[in-house]
Amino acid sequence: ASSSSCNVAGNNINDVWYKFVASSVTHSVFVECVAGVDVYCYSGTSGSFNLIGNYSTGGSTPQGYIQLNNLTVGQTYYIRAGASSTVNFKLLLYAGEPANNDCSNADTVLMSAGQNCEHTFTLQRIGATNSTTPCSNQIDKDVWYVFQAISTDVAIATNSDGASVRMELLDGSCGSLSCLAYSSNGQLFYSGLTVGNYYYLQMGRQSQENQLTAVCIGTYQLNDECSGAVTILMQPYNNLLGNFGNNSLATQSLPSCTGSSIEDVWYKFTATDTACIVTTSTDGNNPRFDVFSG
Questions:
Q1: Could you tell me if 209 and 159 are in contact, meaning their C-beta atoms sit under 8 angstroms apart?
Q2: In the chain, what's the furthest Cα-to-Cα distance?
Q3: What residues have CB less than 8 Å from 228, skipping those under 6 apart?
Q4: Which residues are within 8 A (CB) of 238 and not within 5 positions of it... i.e. 6 or more apart?
Q5: Beta carbons of 56 and 13 less than 8 angstroms apart
Q6: Euclidean distance between CA atoms 127 and 73, whole angstroms
Q7: Cβ-Cβ contacts under 8 Å for 133 (sequence gap 6 or more)
Q8: Is the separation of the CB atoms in 215 and 162 below 8 Å?
Q9: In the chain, at which end, N or C, are there fewer CB atoms within 10 A of the end residue's CB?
C-alpha cells in the first residue's frame, strides 16, 4: 500500500481503505495488531473528509476499538488503516451495543461444577456503555451476566488477558441490586450464596483494551487450603506421573518457600520409603511446589 493522496486528517502512513453503510447510530471498529497500526474513521466524501475517531495499537496496547456515536443510518463512512511499514492486522465492525449492555438483558451463563471450567464464556465489551453500580468500584463500559448458584461458594476468574477486569457480584433484581463483593484484578471469591438463587455479575474495566476475555464462574478448589489436601499415592519409579490436578480458580494460601506468589492447591501423601521424587509435567507453564512436614 502507499500513502493516500486524499486530503485527510491523520498520520502519513502506507494505508488501505474500507467503507460501511451505518445500520445503527452507534458502530464500533475493533482493531488488533501487535506490531502497531493507525486506524482513522471519517464521515463525508473524498476531498472533504471529517475525522470522527481514531486509534493506534502497538506495544502494550495491541488491541482496542473506536466507538462511533451519533451516526446517520444509511450514510456511508470510511475507515483508513495503515502503518509506516508492512503489518498484518485484524479489523472488525460492530453495530450497536452488546445485547447484554444493561442489567435487564443480562446473559444467562452457567456456573461450572468442576474444577476444569467446563462452562467458560467470553467477556465481550465492544460498544458497551456505562451502568450505575451499587458497589464502590468504578467500572467503565460494562456488560451483564446472571447465573444460578450451584454452591454456597463461588470463584470467578478471567484468563491472563483479563487481569485488570473489574467485576461486581450482585444480589436482587434489576433496579434494586445489592453489592455482595467486587474486585478489580480479574478474580473474585465469595462465600455465602444460596444454592438455587440467581445472582448478577457486572463486568468491565477502566480502559478499552483486551475486549475479548475468557471468564469462568466456578466453585472453590476442594483442595485450595491445607485442610482440604487431596491424598495422592507414591508411585513406582517407572510410573512417576500417576496423579493429575490443576489450580484453576485457586488462591494463594501461604507465602511460598521461594518468595513467589502462586495460586496453590494442596496434596498429601504417606511416605513408603525414606526418599522420594516429586516431579510435575504441565501444558507449558512453569509450576512451583513446596513440600512440608509437620
A1: no
A2: 83
A3: 221, 222, 266
A4: none
A5: no
A6: 17
A7: 139, 142, 168, 179, 202
A8: yes
A9: C
Q: Report in angstroms the alpha-carbon separations of 125 from 29, 62, 280.
A: 12, 16, 37
Q: Which residues contact 272 (CB under 8 A, 6 or more apart)?
A: 234
0.85 surpassed by pTM: no
Strand order in the sheet with 14-21: 14-21, 76-83, 38-43, 50-56
Instruction: Kindly compute the dihedral angle of the four CA atoms of residues 218, 223, 226, 231, in this order, to the nearest 10 degrees.
Output: 180
pLDDT tens, 201-250?
999 886 554 456 788 898 876 677 888 787 877 776 655 555 556 666 67
Write the CA distances from 289 to 3, 257, 269, 280, integer angstroms.
55, 9, 14, 9
DSSP 286: -
**What is the number of other CB atoms lying within 10 angstroms of the CB of residue 105?**
14
Residue-wise pLDDT for 102-127, tens only, equals 999 999 999 988 656 788 888 888 88
Supply 238's cell numbers.
Answer: 517407572
Q: In 3-state terms, what secondary structure has residue 270?
A: coil
Q: Which residues of 174-195 are buried (b: 16+ CB within 10 A; e: fewer)?
A: eeebebbbbbbebbbbbeebee
Q: How far apart are the first and last CA of the chain?
A: 68
3-state secondary structure of 254: coil
The grid cell for 4 is 493516500
What is the spatial distance between Cα 69 and Cα 127, in angstroms, rounded to a whole number? Answer: 10
In the numeric block, the cell 477486569 is attached to: 165
